[in-house]
UniProtKB/TrEMBL annotation:
<dbReference type="InterPro" id="IPR049450">
    <property type="entry name" value="ACOT8-like_C"/>
</dbReference>
<dbReference type="Pfam" id="PF13622">
    <property type="entry name" value="4HBT_3"/>
</dbReference>
<protein>
    <submittedName>
        <fullName>Thioesterase family protein</fullName>
    </submittedName>
</protein>
<feature type="domain" description="Acyl-CoA thioesterase-like C-terminal">
    <location>
        <begin position="127"/>
        <end position="259"/>
    </location>
</feature>
<dbReference type="InterPro" id="IPR049449">
    <property type="entry name" value="TesB_ACOT8-like_N"/>
</dbReference>
<feature type="domain" description="Acyl-CoA thioesterase-like N-terminal HotDog">
    <location>
        <begin position="26"/>
        <end position="104"/>
    </location>
</feature>
<dbReference type="Pfam" id="PF20789">
    <property type="entry name" value="4HBT_3C"/>
</dbReference>
<dbReference type="InterPro" id="IPR052389">
    <property type="entry name" value="Sec_Metab_Biosynth-Assoc"/>
</dbReference>
<dbReference type="InterPro" id="IPR029069">
    <property type="entry name" value="HotDog_dom_sf"/>
</dbReference>
<dbReference type="InterPro" id="IPR042171">
    <property type="entry name" value="Acyl-CoA_hotdog"/>
</dbReference>
Length: 267
């Protein structure tokens, strides 16, 4: 079991309840990363489901939970021959923090009939850059849990040179050796800096309000390629679409989220 497996572990208490312990190692300047929190919820739901994989997940982030004990409360909505449907709520101190609807199924790893190609604008790993290591008091503990190597122009905002286009592109893997799985993909779809940084439209923490993602295939071992884009930043809100490809060049995950733009100074 890897550290990420341990950090997302869900322990069954009864028919509708799982105990979890939210790990402070997945924080972004204080708040816990939304992809990490989704992975925690998915562990509980998949454990309860007759099917092996979370193929569709939609989450409303009501408030930011703190590191420490929490519960995932689940409701089984329907189970059919090929898919099951759950409602799951992350609860801490008696209050709901994340509400989610999750569809599970079992993917067999069959060769795709068609898959979109890995974006040609993501350069090879040797031409990419990492973000500077955050200071010990920054609260950016998530950085130590994963490796992200970025297409240099998409992090030009670090030097005050944003491209003016809401985009981010990077190679991704966990810092601890681990083959990617659906729970790692839940983290990957929310792992990049907010695309509004590259657009020059905002600075600081941008909390996710709603995120929906789809597991399209079981990923092959190795690096993942992640591309995030946005269409509109206005009135303090922005959207972000993310696509993830595996080392075999297959599209394995897609997401869309709505978020608030830059509510804190950049760390």
């Amino acid at each position: 079991m890897t550290k990420f497996d341990e950090a997302t572990q869900a322990v069954r208490v009864d028919e509708h309840t799982y105990d979890v312990c939210l790990d402070p190692g997945y924080a972004v300047g204080g708040p816990l990363n939304g992809g990490y929190l989704m992975a925690v919820i998915l562990r509980a739901v998949v454990d309860d489901s007759p099917f092996a994989h979370p193929v569709s997940t939609s989450c409303q982030f009501l408030r930011a939970p703190a590191a420490g004990p929490a519960q995932v409360r689940i409701e089984r909505l329907k189970a059919g021959r090929t898919a099951a449907f759950h409602r799951a709520t992350l609860v801490q101190d008696g209050r709901p923090h994340i509400e989610s609807l999750i569809t599970t199924a079992t993917l067999d790893g069959a060769a795709p009939v068609y898959t979109a190609p890995v974006p040609a604008d993501l350069p090879p790993l040797s031409e990419c850059l990492r973000l500077p290591q955050p200071g010990p008091d920054s609260g950016m503990t998530l950085n130590a849990r994963m490796e992200l190597w970025f297409d240099p122009p998409t992090i030009g905002w670090l030097k005050g040179e944003p491209t003016g286009v809401p985009e981010a592109r990077a190679h991704f893997r966990m810092a601890e050796p681990q083959d990617p799985d659906p729970y790692v993909l839940a983290l990957a779809v929310d792992a990049l800096p907010p695309v509004v940084l590259s657009a020059g439209a905002a600075r600081g923490w941008s909390p996710t309000v709603e995120l929906t993602w789809h597991l399209r295939a079981l990923p092959a071992p190795g690096w993942l390629a992640v591309r995030a884009t946005g269409r509109l930043a206005a009135d303090g809100w922005f959207d972000e679409d993310v696509e993830v490809w595996d080392a075999a060049g297959r599209l394995v995950a897609q997401s869309r989220q709505l978020a608030r733009a830059g509510t804190r100074p950049a760390l």
